[in-house]
Fold these 2 entries.
Entry 1:
Amino acid sequence: MPGGIHFTREMNLEKKDFWQLIDASRLAADNDPNAQVDTLGALLLQLEADQIVEFDRVMVEHVNRAYHWDVWAAGYIIGGGCSDDGFMDFMGWLISKGEQVFETALRDADSLADVVEEIDGECQVEGILYAPGKAWERKTGRPGGDFPQHMFAFQNGPHGESWDEDEVDARLPRLAARFNG
């Protein structure tokens, strides 16, 4: 099993296992976020089908945690704008960077000024979010519509204090200086 991760069929995937798979996929892809989608898919195929579903559940929990106005502001500044779909892709990128970057960004989205590299482009990695479903389809031979869905908790909007476009730079001054300066 990759990265020293060992499961028994009865074991659930834990948070640490989730992040170990993310880290292993990023390292195998030499930090290229687009290549990481493929490496993550290959790692997920080594799991049992129910563990792939559990990986997706843990990922959705993290996306729900990151559904915050400050994180969206970071995506907006880095990408020169950020739609709803773009924000989902940004959260995929954020997860792809690993637990330390993810947790630090949730506490201080401006910290991403020190993280973004040229290889990250606009920091949108949609494929990370779909990797579990695609791996599950390949593993089980069943259609994607059969993949158990985990619900994104977006009905009440992002957490935190909202912002207007004209105030976003003041909210995250380090990112604004780097990407708008």
Entry 2:
Amino acid sequence: MKVLIPFYSMYGHIYRMAEAVAEGVREVPGAEAVLRRVPETLPDEVLTKMGAVEPQKAFAHIPVCTVDELAAADAIIFGTPTRFGNMCGQMRQFLDATGGLWVKGSLVGKAGGVFTSSATQHGGQESTVLTFHTFLLHQGMVVAGLPYAFAGQMRIDEITGGSPYGASTIAGGQGERLPSENELAGARYQGKYIAEIASKLKG
């Protein structure tokens, strides 16, 4: 059973969350986690000005995702940073190329979910995941979030991401904050949870 994890990461926060999601997927017997980057749309000169070139070298070894890989997966867990309360443009452009899959019903019945990040504590994480869910629903996917069975999202002893809609992390205004252990635990939980659902759907 193959669980595809397509993600976009500019400074590495979503990549680290994607790794944790993959760790959770691998806890399910017979589940294979496949990490993929969605294609970059910004020119190198812009990425250089944004200070993203060096951070992106850490995950440059991850292959770029193709649309066909979505159809071949048994479950898909998408990772995207928040851009003004919505997914980033790179992910949007990638999803806009999936019309052929929609026509064929290639994603119908597959389990799917979303994880995200934002600079600030209330930076549109929930709206990003919820608006992303509309894509999953249009494609006929079985939408799964991060249940309250993961008690870490109810913690009030520390600042943390995570909601019933999906795992998330808070990156800080300058990207200085790395995902906390609680946020990574949420990502692992979501990965395992969706892989378990996919396993049941696969029968």
